[in-house]
Amino acid sequence: MTKPKLRIGLIGSGFMGRTHAFGYATASRVFDLPYQVELTCLADISAQAAATAAAALGFARSTDDWRALVNDPEIDVVNITAPNAFHKEMALAAIAAGKHVYCEKPLAPLAADAREMAEAAEAKGIRTQVGFNYLCNPMFALARDMIMAGELGEIRGYRGLHAEDYMADATSPFTFRLDPAGGGALADIGSHALATAEYLMGPAAGAITQVMGDCVTVIHERPDGKGGTRMVQVDDIGRAFLRFENGATGSIEGNWIATGRTMQHDFEIYGTRGALAFTQQRFNELHFFSGGDARGRKGFRRIEAGPDHPPYGLFCVAPGHQLGFNDLKAIEVAGYLQALAGQRPEPFSFRAGLRIQTLVETIHDSSRDAAWKDVRMEGTPRAPAAREPREAVGA
Amino acid sequence: MTKPKLRIGLIGSGFMGRTHAFGYATASRVFDLPYQVELTCLADISAQAAATAAAALGFARSTDDWRALVNDPEIDVVNITAPNAFHKEMALAAIAAGKHVYCEKPLAPLAADAREMAEAAEAKGIRTQVGFNYLCNPMFALARDMIMAGELGEIRGYRGLHAEDYMADATSPFTFRLDPAGGGALADIGSHALATAEYLMGPAAGAITQVMGDCVTVIHERPDGKGGTRMVQVDDIGRAFLRFENGATGSIEGNWIATGRTMQHDFEIYGTRGALAFTQQRFNELHFFSGGDARGRKGFRRIEAGPDHPPYGLFCVAPGHQLGFNDLKAIEVAGYLQALAGQRPEPFSFRAGLRIQTLVETIHDSSRDAAWKDVRMEGTPRAPAAREPREAVGA
Amino acid sequence: MTKPKLRIGLIGSGFMGRTHAFGYATASRVFDLPYQVELTCLADISAQAAATAAAALGFARSTDDWRALVNDPEIDVVNITAPNAFHKEMALAAIAAGKHVYCEKPLAPLAADAREMAEAAEAKGIRTQVGFNYLCNPMFALARDMIMAGELGEIRGYRGLHAEDYMADATSPFTFRLDPAGGGALADIGSHALATAEYLMGPAAGAITQVMGDCVTVIHERPDGKGGTRMVQVDDIGRAFLRFENGATGSIEGNWIATGRTMQHDFEIYGTRGALAFTQQRFNELHFFSGGDARGRKGFRRIEAGPDHPPYGLFCVAPGHQLGFNDLKAIEVAGYLQALAGQRPEPFSFRAGLRIQTLVETIHDSSRDAAWKDVRMEGTPRAPAAREPREAVGA
Amino acid sequence: MTKPKLRIGLIGSGFMGRTHAFGYATASRVFDLPYQVELTCLADISAQAAATAAAALGFARSTDDWRALVNDPEIDVVNITAPNAFHKEMALAAIAAGKHVYCEKPLAPLAADAREMAEAAEAKGIRTQVGFNYLCNPMFALARDMIMAGELGEIRGYRGLHAEDYMADATSPFTFRLDPAGGGALADIGSHALATAEYLMGPAAGAITQVMGDCVTVIHERPDGKGGTRMVQVDDIGRAFLRFENGATGSIEGNWIATGRTMQHDFEIYGTRGALAFTQQRFNELHFFSGGDARGRKGFRRIEAGPDHPPYGLFCVAPGHQLGFNDLKAIEVAGYLQALAGQRPEPFSFRAGLRIQTLVETIHDSSRDAAWKDVRMEGTPRAPAAREPREAVGA
């Protein structure tokens, strides 16, 4: 009756690496996970950095050789939180070694690479996950449930946004985020807006079928960190008009020069009988307009997260206490482990990661050509009920 | 030392007709106007309706013949609040009769008509105004002042919205708002979003030079009021990407099927050193992010309208008491009367009305052709200081 | 069928004098009033000031002799907006002359004076009104209707507040507001919090029966305007615990040194089945929690003022456009004129003004004695339905 | 260089027991703690319950005998999250066994018991902590820093609140929270409002010196769970007026029948040059009004939690991502462990717990006697710098 062990290897210990470690620690306490998680090995760029991070984050061992980690027979799952440019090489190596892979978003800078990764994983029966961060919010689950149950009526319109200001300063130096291959605001955070749009709209309105993009570079040169400057070719703001399968329309914007904004991941969804409004700035709230309310008594309701919105109740038995960002990551971790155990389909597989990259690239293409583009359907999430659990890891 | 009289004739007594009457009444008390306003005559579709409205709204006389009103030698200014389709004919008649004309928005369903009206007025030296409703908000003046003074730094991005739900019900009957010539959400309320965008951005970022439109019909048939249905050809949602003269980019949306929304006329403006956020739902507030605030102390400030924001102080000497929608119209009326007296240029002339119609039509064209379109510069507001006061009316 | 004239005399032309003039102007246009209002005469402290104000505000005549105005046979109603210390003398003179009287709040600095005024008016059958400013908000009417209809269930708790910062600066000079007789934050604005409490709670919870006060002077000296200082004896913050007839309890605070606050007139009301929350900072909104909402879908709804909330629709036919402070005064004016015409009881008679002064004084007494005090029931509003319309003025 | 072990014993595994376990797990990952934490033993009411909880929460062993846990030589710290009535007995036993003790709030139902506990701990040199839950918010630290640095000027006024609705339903059965000894809304959650008041005001305004209480029972009978009813003697709403050492005044309210409210732990603080406003409903935000802002540009700023507000940055390197309730508990845990290691004074010792119980009891006494009461100064927090670190645990 003891749980099988699940041995985790983590590559990278930066912002997201820490978040993964926190996620495993919290998920192990909060959820009744199907596994006993062991943080087995952490790889980083130097032995010293890896050792320090391993000690801090509770990993038993460390290494400066990610390939060793990937091929370590005592590792079941490889978590990749290294810079985006390395995702593909690391993931393919891990897949080749038969490891399950949990990779941070974006899966790869280019959709073609993401496709290769997804196909490699599927060919080997590997279970994968891409870290989308925001989708595991209980208020997103509530929104999706309400939409699927028809509480908004027929879905007609969508407006999404992800705006921050971490690149607003023109004197901040050139970084990997600005790399011509796969960089830019649309890819970096507009991708979150796209992921949210399909996650929420998908079950009722279907996938995004067509896009018209508007990707603009605002800061054309950045310091190269060596006393000179380097030209920037990627977008600081990426916008798109959207079409969904059911005919609903919408728009999204990704913007990393939105002065004063730290986490403006917002959406509004309009249906024939109701509407939803949300901002990540207050992500423990969902605002719901019900057309069924009595005359003179209608208005957007501020629903606060509580035990009625699973899995909130596992974190806290009382409403209104609020989850934090790291809690969202713990829910993401738990969902993956449930999928590994065959208890549910993978919630956000590499194919879902490919899907988002496909959307981003199609918007880039549309913007370049100033023309509407059809979105390839590959990676389109199938309906939630359509996938059966498969055999479990470690069973 | 007594003020000259200004004799007003009003055509129409519906929503906007009443608002004009209220505007004159309030402006006459609140402002030190250059004229003694007399509400001389009101025209409506029947003698009975006109008489009733005249009595209620304080007009001395009434008529069912708008042509008589227009040609009445005892009328100085003709206010047109009749349905949009009549604006051109009425305005041209009034201009021909040498009357100054204050016409509700939209100036005309088609830009070509609006151009004819603007040119006719200019050829005769007629002073004109289009009623934009929201632009006279002291918080808009504050926003514009801040932008012009460089308090936001260089302006980079704009996001505008005007969403309501008055057409969300598919069973509501066909009305003039759905007329294929000039109707639709973009023209009806997206036009407000465009007017706000150019009003605020203009002095710093210049005019809108290019647009990419996305205009969609969601409800394809409406009851025709006679037991059948009528096909709808106009947009229920109109979106556009925008380019400004200084290179800034942005977007707007007009949406009249936004379930639950009554007055979501919002904007966000991002500069290099600061940002502004606003919603008409709380139009006595402007939210300002100052990059110059101390570290760890930054955040959007909720500035409440007060005597520091003229002409608020004429309405109320204490801050926080708030103006209402009808007060905004009173400010609009006062600005026009000041222009008639030569104290200032016309704030929102027919040429400004033409400008908005041009933008709407260009977005429609862009949407139809799925291509970026250059916006004709006609009607582009010149810089505020560039126009001198001309001779006064009634001086 | 023409309406009878109602001839108005106004004493004072400051903040509230202007507001009264605006109120008559707006009410005459917006409402179908039972009278044709004539702004007949304005009195102020000098002939020059009176003449200027009369011209600006639309009064036909002016005078520097308020007694002449009060006794002018061509005046039907005397509006008193002079400093508080003069209210009693002016009102008694007007009553003696048989004029109806509309006096700004507070009716008089001392409850004994207010009682004398109320009794004098009642003895002569004079119809009176006290200007409470905030009570005529359609959202207050909505709140009261909801409470009376039992939509909140049984009413249990109340929390009220009126906080501003206009006296927060210790270097601002001594004014009449600081007069030991009747001055202070509780009297000046805490009185609004009390008026709101009884207006909303009254029909369901009954009158305030007992109070425990806490009135504190924070700034003990102020400049006397002559180079010296003057001791302050009145409260800068006045708090009270409250008991209502039905057993409900609550609290209020009046605070004029609340740095940063301009109009924080707030309330929260808790019942067994629902709750209401409101702030005057956004007075076109009422927040309603309905315990009857579905599980997992509950939350405070932001109800926006609209035509479903009379008399909003008379000002604007579309929801969400918002009323301003001066519009609230116009509604107050209209209610008084309807009462003068016998169409309804006086909504806020001198007896209601006495009631508020009684509450203020009892809280002062309680604070001084550090003991709970019973509130004299005089002035307690009778149930809305209990008063029949009397004969009309000008009928 | 390896860290000393700190072996934790937990009594209780309900809401707060789980929160403690989560806190240790998260703190161990997020902070560089001075100890290697081992979750050694968990005690609960039955062997089965204890074993299940231990497995779920990661404790190595379990027991149904809390006395065994307390006397276990392999335990360094005893965490008490059992029902309030057991706190004293358990804590005294742990202290007698020389264990450090971390006890949930309230320390004990009666101040006399809390005093005995604090004195016992101090006599033995035991390091203690009381779990206050909300005080470790980085935004509280920011508020306190701003107040201490004089950014608000001299502190004049305070308004605090803690309102929820978990006892609003009169049909919910009698529980330990209703126990006549130490129960009631003031003790249960008003205590949080008091703790926040002294935590924030203390360094600048000093301790609360006098109180006037108003504690009311609203629901006089509750089901006894056996088919009958039981009389309720404790308060459902507890209010108090406050006096601080520096002369500042304020008020608090604890209310557990506030229909619709889940976590309305709010404060407003007014100084001569600025103000702060906060609600736990959005606890990653602090609203700051700076009187030093430019004219016409003043307003409450919404400061979002970020790396500028330690220890936020340890949880997340990017601003705006937000902490959750369990993160606050992890910060509380970390502070205690730092105190155990002598790195800082105990942030919230049993003496601080005694202090809050003293305030609660004094307010109860005041309410009963309807008289202002002086607050005994015992337990008043000394100034932050006044306590030196003592020898470390496990050094």
Could you explain the architecture of this structure?
The structure is a homotetramer of 395-residue chains. By secondary structure, the first copy, chain A, is an alpha/beta fold. The longest helix of chain A has 21 residues, at 185-205. The model of chain A is unreliable at 382-390 (pLDDT under 50). Chain A is built from ten helices and 17 strands. The first copy, chain A, folds into two domains: 5-133, NAD(P)-binding Rossmann-like Domain (Rossmann fold, 3-Layer(aba) Sandwich); 138-282 and 284-316, 2-Layer Sandwich (Dihydrodipicolinate Reductase, domain 2). In chain A, the strands form three sheets. A nine-stranded mixed beta sheet of chain A has the order 16-15-14-13-7-12-11-8-17. In chain A, strands 3-2-1-4-5-6 form a six-stranded parallel beta sheet, sandwiched between helices. Chains A and B meet through strand 7, strand 8, strand 11, strand 12 and strand 13 of A and strand 7, strand 8, strand 11, strand 12 and strand 13 of B. Strand 16 of chain B pairs antiparallel with strand 16 (300-304) of chain D. Chains A, B, C, D: It comes from Komagataeibacter rhaeticus. Chains A, B, C, D: Residues 6-132 form the Gfo/Idh/MocA-like oxidoreductase N-terminal domain.
Sum up the structure in keywords:
homotetramer; 395 residues; alpha/beta; Rossmann fold; Dihydrodipicolinate Reductase, domain 2; 2 domains; nine-stranded mixed beta sheet; six-stranded parallel beta sheet; 10 helices; globular
